[in-house]
Amino acid sequence: RNFYYITILRDPVSRYLSEWRHVQRGATWKASLHVCDGRSPTTEELPSCYTGDDWSGCSLQEFMDCPYNLANNRQVRMLSDLSLVGCYNLSVMPEEQRNKVLLDSAKENLKRMAFFGLTEFQRKTQYLFEKTFNMNFISPFTQYNSTRASSVEIDKQTQQRIEALNFLDMELYDYAKDLFLQRYQYMRQKEHQEARRKRQEQRKILRAKQAHLREQGENSSSTDYIGNVERW
């Protein structure tokens, strides 16, 4: 079978806050096996941020303080090929090298996807999806600016810390936004060129029809004149 891989990226700070609120209400990822190279990580490779059944009620400060929190740079990690860095074994290579490999891998995989969209650009995302797969949604996408993440008020220092914790996601998102807008502009330009081509073809057909009608009219006039001359 042929599969098309697609994804939707989100502003890293909003995404991080949204996940915190989700976890705060009792959500867990216990069913996620995090399988890489045929095995799941050990508890030493991927320690838990909490004890008990879930992490409900955790504060944003507690959420940020856990060094093993998979919310950090989640988009890069989920888009990259973890086998390139030894999966969850952080001792395979230096941290700086590991980060570069993960980011480069995530960028490459994103670029090679058939389609990706951005949560912050719903209408443009819909447009690109429809043009990419030649199909139309029955109703327009809605841009919701009021979300659980947007309802969280944070000071500048907290935002800067979230950005620092998600510095790979921040760089990936900048890359994704640039690539996304390039693809959008390309599709719009292609659409305009196609519309222009169709208009030119229609004008050409119309001119041909008009020329044909004029020719028929001239022939008819000549025939009438010759017939009248013969009668005279």
UniProtKB/TrEMBL annotation:
Catalysis: reaction(s): alpha-D-glucosaminyl-[heparan sulfate](n) + 3'-phosphoadenylyl sulfate = 6-sulfo-alpha-D-glucosaminyl-[heparan sulfate](n) + adenosine 3',5'-bisphosphate + H(+)
EC numbers for this chain: 2.8.2.-
Residue ranges of coiled coil: none
InterPro entries assigned: Heparan_SO4-6-sulfoTrfase, P-loop_NTPase, Sulfotransferase
Bilayer disposition of the protein: Single-pass type II membrane protein
Keyword Transmembrane helix part of the UniProt annotation: yes
Subcellular location: Membrane
UniProt keywords, alphabetically: Glycoprotein, Membrane, Signal-anchor, Transferase, Transmembrane, Transmembrane helix
Keyword field contains Transmembrane helix: yes
EC top class, as a word: transferase
GO molecular function: heparan sulfate 6-sulfotransferase activity
PANTHER family, sorted: HEPARAN SULFATE 6-O-SULFOTRANSFERASE 3, HEPARAN-SULFATE 6-O-SULFOTRANSFERASE 2
Record function comment: 6-O-sulfation enzyme which catalyzes the transfer of sulfate from 3'-phosphoadenosine 5'-phosphosulfate (PAPS) to position 6 of the N-sulfoglucosamine residue (GlcNS) of heparan sulfate.
Region (Disordered): 210-232
Stated family: Belongs to the sulfotransferase 6 family.
GO CC field: membrane
Full protein name: Heparan-sulfate 6-O-sulfotransferase
